[in-house]
Design brief:
- The protein contains four helices and no strands.
- The protein is mostly helical.
- Among the domains are: 1-29; 33-84.
- Helix 2 (36-54) packs antiparallel against helix 3 (62-83).
- The longest helix is centred in the N-terminal third of the chain and has 23 residues, at 5-27.
Length: 127
């Protein structure tokens, strides 16, 4: 398309930013897409059939293929949203033992010589 490095870089940067925004938009809804995996599996089956037929049997036009893929994804998303209508998001249960703990004052004092700084008790000020 172009040899202009600035255009290629900015196009890729904006594409990534758009995908990041879409991820945060859909991250809260992902628990409702229960049939999306089945829909994506059907898309992969469709692509495999299309590739197998293209060898010597029949060529499926690209617009037809895109239409089939769009219909499969739309049906799987709509079926998921209908099936999970009214459900609220469930938070995962908190672990019984937290994965990290806070260091005690004794442990922090032992590590002070390694840090090369002194801490005052109760405050995190640098000297």
């Amino acid at each position: 398309m172009t040899d202009e490095v600035f255009l290629v870089f900015t196009a890729n940067a904006f594409a990534i930013l758009g995908l990041r925004a879409m991820y945060f938009l859909l991250a809260d809804l992902i628990h409702r897409f229960v049939y999306l995996k089945a829909g994506l599996a059907l898309v992969l089956v469709w692509v495999g059939i299309k590739m197998a037929l293209k060898i010597d049997v029949y060529y499926i036009p690209t617009p037809v293929s895109l239409a089939v893929i769009t219909v499969i994804l739309a049906v799987s998303i709509l079926a998921s949203l209908v099936a999970t209508r009214g459900q609220v998001r469930h938070e995962p249960p908190a672990p019984a033992v937290p994965p990290f703990r806070r260091a005690t004052e004794e442990e922090l004092r032992e590590l002070e010589p390694l840090w090369g700084r002194a801490r005052s008790v109760g405050e995190e000020t640098l000297k």
